[in-house]
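RESIDUES AND SHAPES:
===
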Amino acid sequence: MPRLAVILTQGFADWEYGVLCGLGRAYFGLDVRFVTPVPGDVISMGGLVARVSDGFELLDSWEPDAVVVIGGTLWEHPDAPDLSGLLEGAQARGAVLAGICGGTLALARAGVLNTLRHTSNDASFLGLHAAGYAGAALYVDEPKAVRDGKVVTAAGTAPVSFAAEIMTALDVPLETVQQLKSMLGAEHIGTQARSV
């Protein structure tokens, strides 16, 4: 069973982890644990109070197969946590690294995106908010998640493809990944955008 450490910070985005963690744990056999810089109560953008009992030290002892950085308001500020050492250590162990929305900033600041294809909220977002980011030539303007080897990135509007690409990177059987995408995309089959 693949082990996922999901990083939440104050102001985390409620919609970005639900598919991966909720369905991933309940239906697809992922072992999910949440971590935060300071264990205790973490409040989401929507006002959900989550009590997270594990800090970053869990990553050394548990050695997850994937480290997932969920977006939120904190990542755009100078006092955002520096995950460089943590991400470098996980990558050296062969773990999947993933960031969605503001979580891509943590990967960019750590230098992870400088040599790999990646995406984020838009082309200027990473350069504007991530000092040291030098991967603009490899940025992919894509509404779905982008996976390059064991690194997955996504805009905040792509939680389904984000979950699917993480599962693919973890070698979850493709039929299972396709089941996830089919189930969550069913409402959009055959529909077209309509003006209100």
The helical segments are 18-26, 57-62, 84-92, 103-109, 123-129, 159-169, 174-185. Strands lie at 3-7, 31-35, 40-43, 49-52, 66-69, 96-100, 146-148, 151-154. The longest strand covers residues 3-7. DSSP finds seven helices and eight strands in the chain.
